[in-house]
Amino acid sequence: MDFNEIVNQYKDKMLEDLKGLLSIESVRGESKPDAPVGDGPKEALMYMLSLGERDGMDTKVVDNLAGHIELGSGEDLFGILGHVDVVPAGTGWDTDPYEPVIKDDVIYARGVQDDKGPTIAAYYAMKILNDLKVPLKQRVRLIIGTDEESDWLCTDAYFKKEEMPNFGFAPDAEFPVIHGEKGITSFDLVFESDTKAYGDVVLNRFTSGERYNMVPESATANITVDDADKLKQSFDAFLEEMKLTGDFIKNEDTVDLIVHGKSAHGSTPLEGKNAGLELLRFLKIISIDQRAFEFLSFYDHYIRDNFDGQQFKMDFKHEEMGETSVNTGIIRYDLNGKSYFGVNLRYPLGMDFKAAIDKLSKEVEAHKIAVENISDQVPHYVEKNSPLVKVLTDTYKNYVEDDTEPFTIGGGTYARVLENGVAYGAMFKDTKDTMHQANEQMPVDELVLATTIYLEALHKILVEEALVE
Ligand SMILES: [Zn+2]
């Protein structure tokens, strides 16, 4: 069967349906009893389900947060997981983000790449299979979420009530196949000391970072100091030696020390320069009040160069998934408020995070530190040589000349919701990644090609039973 030719016959209709979906401003909004994440996401969900009904497939809504379109019969279920909510448009657009336009064969609209275009591609693969009237040996479901960009309330609600597919993929990332994702945790190391702060140099406040999963690009220390000029001299020398930039600001009674770093995603802390860690490095080498000294000695033992988790005894390595990574995304110190390190740690398969964090909690008590606010998403992994990964990769390689092997990442994709699921497209190796950006775009050719790949993969799995041993 020439899947590419078949998909091309559907191109105009597919673009029309996609434009309808893109026209809905499905940003998370005010919660209402019948629209828990707002009217926009719900409208986009209902729109998708109406396509399924129009085309003669079974549909179901779950709590107005998620839903599915189902095709075929049989015991086994294959799942495709996409989402129709989008992040806010932001500024800098050349066109109206919710009035899709096609210019030079490229579609421009918020959500066209993340994740409405890929979701429509997967939908059309199902619709075409339905129209072909080939007998399917199992069921396939397009599961549609409406809260992927925020709290994943959609998939939480959905899988409380609905069955977990045997296998599946999420068209919400890139080709060929992402078959593993590190465990993602965050926790606070809270400093609880009643030591008094006094002396020639007193640290009043320290602020760095807003989010666990970002490397902070600036840090500020507010200090009361007797000899400000001497402090400035040391600070300037430090900046020069460390090849950093910063500012020294004299206020009425205090001074502010500011260090500039470089932002990066929390899964790749070494690609950035953590301004907070650098500024603490300076405070550690000057003589400072006793309370700050305690805070800094904890930093020295557990935080300073801890990019691989070694200082937490959480350094671990997996052959395919790589090493533990640590990002100290938030640092706060306050003489009168909460002082803590907000840590984002990502770990590969094989590490027992619960045991490790329990051990760490006991160990750091001696430093007047309490571990709080622990969240843990366990690693997600599907064998690289599993039939699922193989079928999807082979199908992709039928259409694209690309030696890239299936790979694993430190970030998280929607696929981790599926027990045996991987991320599969729809960005290609040379695709410009415009997700969450102004002028989000997807070439029409890529939409057609992704649909073709999904169609052939579904044909192999549902008709030729490629996953049945
Ligand atoms: Zn997405």
UniProtKB/TrEMBL annotation:
CDD domains: M20_PepV. One of its GO terms (biological process) is proteolysis. It comes from the Bacteria. Coiled coil: none annotated. One of its GO terms (molecular function) is acetylornithine deacetylase activity. SUPFAM superfamilies: Bacterial exopeptidase dimerisation domain, Zn-dependent exopeptidases. Keywords: Dipeptidase, Hydrolase, Metal-binding, Metalloprotease, Protease, Zinc. Its EC number is 3.5.1.18. Pfam families: Peptidase_M20. Its cofactor is Zn(2+). Belongs to the peptidase M20A family. This is Succinyl-diaminopimelate desuccinylase. The lineage of its organism: Bacteria, Bacillati, Bacillota, Bacilli, Bacillales.
